[in-house]
Design goal:
The complex is a heterodimer of chains A (about 280) and B (about 170). Chain A is α+β, with helices and mostly antiparallel strands and about 280 residues long. Chain A has three helices and twelve strands. Chain B has about 170 residues and is mainly α. Chain B is globular and about 45 Å long. In chain B, about 75% of the residues lie in helices and about 0% in strands. Classes of the chains: A alpha+beta (about 280), B mainly alpha (about 170). Chains A and B meet through helix 1, helix 2 and strand 1 of A and helix 1, helix 4, helix 5 and helix 6 of B.
Chain lengths: ~280, ~170
């Protein structure tokens, strides 16, 4: 009897594993994403409701009145400073437009369109850096759209179902972003790490970079718009015998505590494959 | 049959809790509680029936839908871990605490090992040399502790909803 039971359980396990392998092989086709979409359509409303129930438990405590007064004073001073800076920048823009017109040079301002979304969950595996947001294809979200917060780049849309989407975070080890160090204009590639840190690689040895420098997207490769802030350099590793410099980068957005994100909807990734020349066969 | 119905009701909720609630309880990323894994292992240990193995299919399906990894990875990992618990639960001394600890440790290790292997096979960049070992060890410890705590309740529940048969 025990042997029969054991045999049944092993056969059943093998069948379930076979189903898993089948789904895994289908995951490279559209049918798998459709299947995921069906499950997501069922569980997303439940997830949104559960999130709305538990959200108040994790929100920050209200700020004390004295702190608010201090904060108000700081912000008022900051507004005054920003106003003066705004006036100066307006003058600079006017001057730039005038010079551009003189040079018959036109360039559209990079003004993006955004949709905001709430983060309703994170990846069920703590080793994968994804968050789930409550907006999907019905809300105009598509795969590969950039996702930002007021602080900077968060990631890209990796999967979009009708009512929810998954965002691959910038600190994921599956992510590589073409970036530029703002002060030195040095280009590099920012990689996520398994440890959730960011590492900037392929910076030329002669580039002058240092801790505190701002890192922004470069727009190279056409997968992300240029000039989105990503992080600041924390430390630089430069050795004479290396080919490139490396740097540790701290993300500007707090990727562990994202609550609301914005998706840039009017940016379409540029397909570079047609531009890459195919090698001519030797026999021709 | 009641076993499967209960699984259909409980597993999706647990997977949503794992995705929605637990990341906020995880202080500074020091540990991760794999709630679905713990419940599926405990259930298979408490009630080592073929129906209990279907909990791993359902759990894997839910975890995969809420994860960025390819569909099927959690199903395979969870089933392999559950089979260990199911086989161990068939023993006379299945309720002994040492067995619970052993199943918790072995099940979690098998789950992670198969999970990372499948990630690598499916083209994910997995840095085997720099796997977050401390994080994995703390996850194993927390999973085992939770399993020890909840096992009596799971056992009570299985006794309530299932009719025990006597194997001869």
């Amino acid at each position: 009897m025990y042997r029969n039971k054991l045999q049944t359980n092993v056969i059943l396990s093998a069948t379930i594993i076979a189903i898993g392998i089948l789904l895994l092989s289908l995951s490279y086709s559209d049918s798998s994403s459709k299947f995921k979409g069906v499950i997501s359509t069922i569980i997303t409303p439940l997830q949104i409701n559960i999130y709305s129930l538990v959200e108040p438990l994790f929100t920050n405590e209200p700020i004390a009145p004295e702190e608010l007064v201090n904060l108000n004073a700081t912000l008022t001073a900051e507004i005054a400073l920003l106003r003066s800076e705004n006036i100066r920048l307006s003058e600079t823009i006017y001057e730039r437009d005038m010079l551009a017109a003189l040079l018959n040079y036109t360039k559209l301002d990079n003004v993006n369109t955004y949709i905001s979304a709430n983060v309703i969950g994170k990846d069920t595996s703590s080793f994968l850096q994804y968050v789930i947001i409550d907006i999907g294809t019905t809300g105009g979200v598509q795969r590969d759209m950039p996702v930002v917060t007021d602080a900077g780049l968060v990631g890209i849309i990796n999967e979009a179902t009708p009512r929810a989407s998954k965002v691959l975070l910038v600190n994921s080890d599956q992510m590589a972003v073409n970036v530029r160090v703002q002060n030195s204009r040095a280009d590099g590639v920012l990689f996520g790490q398994a440890s959730k840190d960011l590492r900037l690689r392929y910076i030329a040895l002669d580039a002058n970079i240092s801790a505190g420098d701002l890192v922004v997207t470069s727009g190279l490769g056409g997968s992300l718009p240029a000039n989105i802030p990503v992080g600041v350099i924390a430390s630089v590793r430069s050795r004479a015998y290396d080919v490139f410099q490396e740097a540790e980068v701290l993300p500007l957005a707090n990727l562990d505590k994202i609550e609301i994100v914005m998706i840039i909807t009017d940016f379409t990734t540029i397909e570079l494959k047609p531009l890459i020349s195919t090698p001519i066969p030797d026999d021709l | 049959m009641r076993n499967i119905i209960l699984g259909l009701l409980v597993i999706p909720l647990l997977a949503i809790f794992q995705s929605t609630l637990l990341p906020y309880l995880n202080l500074h990323g020091e540990f991760n509680l794999d709630l679905v894994l713990v419940i599926v292992l405990s259930w298979n240990l408490a009630y080592p029936n073929s129906e209990s193995l279907l909990w791993s299919l359902l759990g894997g399906l839910m975890l995969d839908s809420l994860s960025g990894a390819h569909m099927g990875i959690n199903i395979i990992s969870l089933t392999m871990a559950s089979l260990i618990a199911n086989l161990a639960g068939s023993r006379v001394w299945s309720t002994h605490i040492i067995l619970r600890i052993s199943v918790g440790i072995t099940g979690t290790i098998i789950y992670y090992l198969v999970y990372f292997l499948l990630l690598t096979i499916t083209g994910w960049r997995t840095d085997w040399a720099n796997l977050p070992i401390e994080n994995l060890v703390s996850s194993i410890i927390i999973n085992v502790l939770v399993m020890i705590m909840i096992f009596p309740s799971i056992r009570w529940l299985t006794a309530k909803i299932t009719q025990h048969s006597i194997d001869i």
